[in-house]
Amino acid sequence: MKNTIYPYPFKLSATGDLSDGLVFHVPSFCRSNHKTNKCRDFYKNECENEGYKQCPYGFAVNVNHFLGQKVIFSCLNIDKISDKKMIQKRLSNKDFLPRMPLSLYEESIRDISIFIKSHDDFYKKENEKINTKETYIDKIEILDNTFHELRKLNQELKLQTEHLIFESNNFNWDNIENIKYLSQNIFSTSQLISIRLNTYDFGVNPNLSLYEQKSPIQIHKKFVKVAHCLREYASKKLIKIQIAGESYSSIMANDVLELLPYLILDNAIKYSLENRQIEIKFSEKDSELDVTVKSFSIRPHENELKKLTERGIRSSRINSQIQGQGIGLYLANYICELHNISMDFRLGKDRYFADGIPYSDFYVTLTFHNIIKDENFDYDFDID
Predict the structure, then answer these.
(1) Of 9, 17, 42, 267, which is least packed with CB atoms within 10 Å of its CB?
(2) How far is CA 210 from the centre of its chain?
(3) pTM for this predicted structure
């Protein structure tokens, strides 16, 4: 969608797309780097409040609000704000970005504000078009990420099936346990593919779950099932999943609740240090059930904890090689809000550094309210 309002390169949110301005376009360097973790972390952590900022590469950034709409002007070359030497190193001959006096820039912002106030309806419609484009881009990124994971799972399924066929063709009673193990792995991988597709559906259309009919769902059962499905994924990092405590209770919930254990455990495995243990503890008291998942994971900054449930937010300490879009805990939190489930994060005191990155115990506690007591335990999974 072509921008018809802003003269400077801009974003409508910290996680939004960076678009060309009417007069000044996004420099080639910024176009290539604005989706790196370094840039994303800057926008997420530094661009909440109005005012001037300097990005890690020396460009000026200015956060404004027009009629309640946040607008982040970026890639600016403003006197007294930008780092002139850093910018010169990053501009190509094709980039048009002359240095601008601060007074002239501020005058242009006042003109933009006056124009917007006098064209209220037009401004809102144009922003709606831009936001629609950004939503479309977000969905494409989620789809790309989903396909990438599905290809990996499909490759695993193929290898496991080939191994099972080989064992079956060379059958003897000594390898019966291995055949059983391979069969369970194939089932688990196929279940993961199904859960991952459901996660994609929910990520793209979360409001669809609002219209689903609720029914009693056993929490312990869902966690055990997902832990079993993720066993192979965890074993590649030499991680064992342990479950302590029992619960025979249910809550009234939509089918989407099954994604909650997957999102929490997948997140724990992804960011955990290798050769560690993930513990899931169940504790019931009166009409409440607490489920605490403890992993030894990358330790976020204290001020990042409350932001982890925001869409697109990951700790700035996470290496860019660890794939993710910062939507796992966002979706988990959305499911919790739909079902009146409390979700809290807590960090352990002890720290361990690996490759300069701090790790510590990371606790996620889910509190299920108004549980339904049920003594019928109708399933049996062996995590080990």
Answers:
(1) 17
(2) 21
(3) 0.63
